[in-house]
Amino acid sequence: MVAGPGIGPCRCCGPRTGSHQARGGTLAATRTAAYFDLDKTVLSTSTTFALSMPMRRSGLISAPTLARSVVVQLPYLLFGADGEQGTRLMNQIAALCAGIERAEVERVVAEAMATAIEPAIYTEALDLIEAHRQAGHDVVIVSASTEETVLPIARLVGADRAVASRMEVDAAGRFTGQVERSLMHGAKVPALEADAAEHGIDLSSSWAYSDSVSDLPMLQAVGHPVVVNPDRDLRRHAAEAGWPVRDFEPPVRVARHAGADALEEMREALPQLWKVGVAAAGLFAVGAVAAWAVTSGPVRPRR
Predict the structure, then answer these.
(1) What is the dihedral of CA 240, 294, 85, 154, to 10 degrees?
(2) Where are the domains of the chain?
């Protein structure tokens, strides 16, 4: 695993050496960055899906909540999500977290890094991140997932900083169930532009990586867009635009254990899914099989 420096939200991080102040106090655009989407680009799955079982085992979420989480996420995992669907997904996940202490989520996420997240990281993504770092580029994770999950993952893969969605927290440190800031799809472009302005990044010389056509605005915002494991629409657009396409192989440990993990989630969730209807249970069963099929292709050893 590639080790990286400590990071925080980009509003807290200073620029790397080499940027300088322009008139008016802003940083001159003299640096290059590589902006990486997270789910299905750096990770082979959804961050939320990967952390569902650790959250359940820790007692932070109940079996009924796990079941609802599975139902909410399955369409995204299997078919992707457009802007409206993505916003609905974000709001539903935030609602499921209402009343949970943020500090407890951060603790569970930290404890789950080695077992739930690291095995799902694409080796090729680590190689690209390291190559950009060696070239002197800033590496930034830009994700619609929440800060509590994205920042530790960004730190794990060696990114300089991360920009992520934020759920509202009350005075007692508990999630309210509302979204304070969403970076779903088109909202990533203002985030890139803000990061570029703060850290002296020239977007025309920078790179962006994503798997989804919903991130097309982000890819078009930089001079070097690269599509990774693209959905059908993004693959077609990349072919028309002449963009590079990278198809990553499933991580070894994910391929070995995805079936068992999916079955465990199904075992935990099925009793509750049955209460909301046989159709929902059937959908989850199809999703578990699909998750296994997607992750059981050819693999190569991790370095």
Answers:
(1) -90
(2) 27-295
Task: Note the pLDDT of residue 186.
Answer: 79
The parts of the chain modelled with pLDDT lower than 70 are: 1-27, 65-88, 185, 252-303
Does 39 qualify as catalytic in the annotation? yes
Q: Right CATH number for 27-295 from 3.20.20.80, 3.40.50.1000, 3.40.50.970, 3.30.300.160?
A: 3.40.50.1000
Res 82: pLDDT: 54
Q: Which of 37, 160, 195, 211 is catalytic?
A: 37
189, 182 Cβ separation under 8 angstroms: no
Cα–Cα dist 259/104, whole Å = 28
Which helix (H) or strand (E) covers residue 143, if one does? Answer: strand 138-146
Name the pTM for this structure. Answer: 0.73
Write a three-state SS string for 204-270: HHCEEEECCHHHHHHHHCCCEEEEECCCHHHHHHHHHHCCCEECCCCCHHHHHHHHHHHHHHHHHHH
